[in-house]
Amino acid sequence: MSDYDYSYSDDESIPDEIDISFVCKNQRNTLQKDESSSSENEEEIKKRKKDSKRLAKEAANRIDTESEDDIEPWSEPQAPDTNDATADPEEEYKLWVEREVSRLRAEITVGANITLDQARTRQQKLMSDAELAQLKAEKNPKKKEHMQFMQKYFHKGAFTIAEDNPRAQELLQRNYNTPVGEDLYDKKSLPAEMVVRGDDYQKKGRTKWTHLLNEDTTTLEMRNEARKLKKKEDTSIPDVHKKKKGNQ
């Protein structure tokens, strides 16, 4: 038998494991309070259970003693009135007829519009490009407005306006291409430096370029001039090698 082998008899029992936890000195008094409070909570829970059982028994006995006539039937509080029928059945029938007639009229109108659109589509497929352009011009005739020189363009906007408003009608029918303000003056007679919009004349940030048509953006003439100058320089310089060969 080795030193590490142990034998236990029947009389000896293996001790249970003990859960050891460290408690600070300042907190040792609180453990006793927690144990006392836990015991008080258990007593309160037991008392509540007893009270709840007693109340349940009293309620059951009260229901048994009461008769069915004494019990009030349940009714929904403030129930909305769902009865939309009128007192006069003839008036109600007239309203129903009006609703049905308007519904059938709308269905017939929608069906007729669909049939008409399909017929127009089939007809336009058989047309040529010239006929389609003529048809489009007849539907949307646009009069091209002539604007003055350097006139500022104003867009009327793409905002939704109520058509029943008289102010809206005036805004929709207004011609925004008519000149106003400084556009009323003819700027063609001014010098080229002064032909600018608004008060941009002699400002630091204004560019001096007005339009590409007024400026020479090609370099072909400059190349031709450079070639001419080079030829002149070549002809003006005497060829020394040719003279030496001739003397020899």
Please give a structural write-up.
- With 248 residues, this protein is mainly alpha-helical.
- Among the domains are: 89-134; 142-204, no CATH class.
- Helix content is 48%, strand content 0%.
- It is built from six helices and no strands.
- It has helices at residues 28-65, 89-125, 129-139, 166-172, 220-236, 240-247.
- The longest helix has 38 residues, at 28-65.
- The radius of gyration is 54 Å and the shape is flat.
- The model has no long low-confidence stretch (mean pLDDT 74).
- Residues 53-65, 222-235 have a biased composition (Basic and acidic residues).
- Residues 21-217 form the Micro-fibrillar-associated protein 1 C-terminal domain.
- This is Micro-fibrillar-associated protein 1 C-terminal domain-containing protein.
- InterPro entries: MFAP1, MFAP1_C.
Question: Concise description?
Answer:
Residues 1-90, 220-248 are annotated as: Disordered. The chain is mainly alpha-helical and 248 residues long.
Sheet/helix structural class: mainly alpha
Cα gyration radius (Å): 54 Å
Number of helices: 6
Sketch the major β-sheet: none
Intertermini distance: 134 Å
Mean pLDDT, rounded to whole units?
74
Sequence of secondary-structure elements: HHHHHH
Instruction: Note poorly predicted spans.
Output: none
Globally, the shape reads flat
- What portion of residues is helical? 40-55%
User: DSSP strand (E) fraction?
Assistant: under 5%
| Beta strands, count | 0
InterPro entries: MFAP1, MFAP1_C
Biased composition (Acidic residues): 8-19
Organism: Tritrichomonas foetus
Domain Micro-fibrillar-associated protein 1 C-terminal: 21-217
